[in-house]
Amino acid sequence: MPVMRSRVRRVEVVEPIAKRTRRRRAAAEAGLATPKTNDKEQKTDNERVGVGGAVKEEEENRALEVAKEKKGVLGEKKQMDLLDSGGKSKKKPLAGCGDDEGTASPVPDQVQVEDSPVYRVERKLGKGGFGQVYVGRRVSAVNTNDKSGAGAVEVALKFEHRSSKGCNYGPPHEWQVYDTLGGSHGVPLVHYKGQQGDYYVMVMDMLGPSLWDVWNNNINSNLMSTEMVACIAVEAISILEKMHLRGYVHGDVKPENFLLGIPGTPDEKKIFLVDLGLATRWQDSSTGLHVEYDQKPDVFRGTVRYASVHAHLGRTGSRRDDLESLAYTLIFLLRENKGFVVCKKKMAITSEALCCFCPQPFKQFVEYVANLKFDEEPNYAKCISLFDGEIGTNPDMRPLNTEGAQKVGHKRGHLTMEEEDDEQPKKKVRMGMPATQWISVYNARRPMKQRYHYNVADARLGQHIEKGNEDGLFVSSVASYQNLWAIIMDASTNYSAQVYELSPYFLRKEWIMEHWENNYYISAIAGANNGSSLVVMSKGTSYMQQSYKVSDSFPYKWINKKWKEGFYVTAMATSGSKWGVVMSRGAGFAKQVVELDFLYPSEGIHRRWDSGYRITATAATWDQAAFVLSVPKRKPTDETQETLRTSAFPGTHVKEKWAKNLYIASMCYGRTTLAEISL
């Protein structure tokens, strides 16, 4: 077990006891508590706050905090499986769900909204995240056998309670979406809508079974024919294209939301896409431009089993996400086993493993949609053409109506992946092989002295730091690999004194609180896989107050809360699967964001760079990497920043960077991806 050590640079001026006593007394009179030390081991989920020369420990509702953090930014597998119980995924929307049947008032026996006929409410068809759907039978005397349209005898009635969070500001958001999309190819019409009693009601065309029902009731081991799934693919792509052309993404593509027409009618072989409660705009309605990119790791929209990787990561929805969810839907329909990849498995699994029992076109479709950029316009005709060889040549003999896809093909001409000679090979966004590597970040600086040490054992840590101190260098960054340490020391830190501790515990609170008391602030941290940590605290920083948290998952909710209080992330580290995050007031940042991914988030980092952000903290575990990017209040003269990923410590590369006046700003070891080029 590592031996705990603490070193203070010899030039430090020790505060006289009498002066320290007066200061503590003044702090106590001001209402600031002096910390009580104890020898208990630090708990997993906690938060510590240091204020000037005194320390305040924030006591929070631990049960609530642990529940939130164990749930995790990206979710625990057990909880994800609960959302996928029985093979039918439950929706987990960002906004409120539909009414709670246990507390909401019952739906009315009869419905009449706007100038609609009177409908008797009959059997319940289903319940989703945004309401309940019932059969409505027309009561008024009519002489019609219509099965669809405003005069139909049977309709679908969708109820959403007015107390639903989705109705906080009036009628459901879904109404606006249907106003724009209703009646377009593959989207059912809403004939009437209005409020009756406690419910908002939509009167819609009655449709047939969902693709989930067809798959689940298939006596042939739940298998659909390849031709049937290929027909679903081309028609669904066509429906999504029409929806995207009107500026919306669906946000919850899955088998349960694709419905066939009523059996025995001309529409029985058509598919329709329903449930627009999670639909959002990818295109700004006023400017016509693509909405801005963002990532909020604590926000999830969609259904766990079919959601895109980007949805799991809390990124702003765009057209690529609908197509990726469709890809998972198609693979699910082709597989015999109800068990399917969810959450983290989906992030890391290769297209070969995911599509191992699928024909080649499905694998090509997965690879194409998984590597679309955030604002890239999908080539819908190319996607449709992939499935040509799986579908019969006579449209009348196909198991599904593909009229919409045929129109796309006639309009644009069929293309294949190989026929686009004008396209340059492009870097794959997500399909690289997972790897663990050194991640180093370099900033442009005026020429200065910088020194690095790596593969440093515990016993040699002190001599490297002391030698650097003697040469006028202070520790600026630390990292760990295989329980050995990497140390970066600079001559331009502006620190006046520095202490450090090597502890067998991850961010031992007693030592940190003691040095907060003496006006030191955490300036660098690193954690090893064996649970030990290296904490460096400095004088001469710009910080006025600090808070830190240790958590079993990346604590984005806590970070977001602290942002609102004026704190910014100034250091991060991991120890095994634990995360440690330090936030400070007076950090000199104007804005800050987080990029969190199961692979290296190349696209997100470049988008943030383009918006004026620069990486200011990094940390990674064996399966996740986090980057904190900030906008400084004072713009640097040279904003150049570069990142590097290497299997071994980048010693040779560091010297090459120094020659260009690029110096190490931060580094860590953990999850990345080996980049690939698509041919």
TrEMBL record:
All residue ranges annotated as the Protein kinase domain in the record: 119-417
Molecular function terms, GO-annotated: ATP binding; protein serine/threonine kinase activity
Biased composition (Basic and acidic residues): 37-48, 55-81
Transmembrane domains' residue ranges: none
Spans annotated as Disordered: 17-109, 403-429
Top-level taxon of the source organism: Eukaryota
Amino acids binding ATP: 158
Protein name per Swiss-Prot or TrEMBL: non-specific serine/threonine protein kinase
Organism per entry: Salix dunnii
